[in-house]
Automatic annotation (TrEMBL), chains A, B:
InterPro entries: HTH_HxlR, WH-like_DNA-bd_sf, WH_DNA-bd_sf. GO terms for molecular function: DNA binding. The keyword DNA-binding applies. It comes from Chromohalobacter marismortui. This is HxlR family transcriptional regulator. It comes from the Bacteria. PROSITE patterns: HTH_HXLR.
Length: 121, 121
DNA sequence: ACGGGTACTTACCAAAAGGTGCATACTTGA
DNA sequence: TCAAGTATGCACCTTTTGGTAAGTACCCGT
């Protein structure tokens, strides 16, 4: 019954759209590592410490279906697959950089605020 | 034994930190509207169509505790409160701009990918 | 034949996020 | 006095997200 608003078909602003693509517990990390170059599944898993197979695969599939990453199956004798950023994905990573910078500059404030929320809940 | 990595205690990269602050179903929208200037609670609620009181208050509180927005209670006779961006919040919004731009440019691709996922699940 | 490595897949569960709706306390205007 | 508006709080429930643990199917070295 929340069916008003015939003018706004999807997103209120670009950021809104972008967040649909990059939010997910492991996605920023995955993008961070893939930005360094094509990476094999196992290698990626070892890089993104703490991720489970289920999660890694799931997030990779979503990124793939969003056109951000590309899966390459070499069809070789011992299984061999790798993941890389598409040009589209690379453009996203470029756009993310200022946000990375902001986060780096204020990492401590952010961490402090998170702690505050965690303890006083 | 997941106690490796003595250098980075919290975030893998700045983006990771930033996402803790801006993810939340209504936060980008809220920031988008607050960027236009201080806004009263009720006004904000009417702008962010579809949000419930609970959600709006919750997200505002989180943004406030993160130092992004400022709540001003004028202590007036008929209740009067408004919300605005702090300078810190304004710097965040500036850093978000490229991501907004990216999202705007690719809104259609993103929407298409979302549909694809929704229907084939 | 066995253990280990590759890249996944699946079923089941817990926790977090979000939504609905009612309650509060105070006001002003009809 | 009653309805409506202000800004919030709270209980309850559903949906979404994430985590655990196991299994698959293939290959390689010993």
């Amino acid at each position: 019954m929340a069916k008003e608003n015939s003018e706004n078909p999807r997103f209120i602003c670009g950021l809104h759209a972008t967040l649909h693509v990059i939010s997910g517990k492991w996605k920023p990390l995955i993008l961070f590592f893939l930005d360094k170059g094509p990476t094999r599944y196992g290698e990626l898993k070892r890089s993104v410490r703490g991720v489970s197979d289920k999660m890694l695969i799931q997030q990779l599939k979503e990124l793939e279906s969003d056109g951000i990453v590309q899966r390459t199956d070499y069809g070789e004798i011992p299984l061999r697959v790798d993941y890389s950023l598409t040009p589209f994905g690379a453009s996203l990573v470029r756009a993310m950089e200022p946000l990375c910078g902001w986060g780096e500059e204020h990492e401590e404030d952010i961490a402090a605020a998170m702690d505050r929320r965690k303890t006083s809940r």
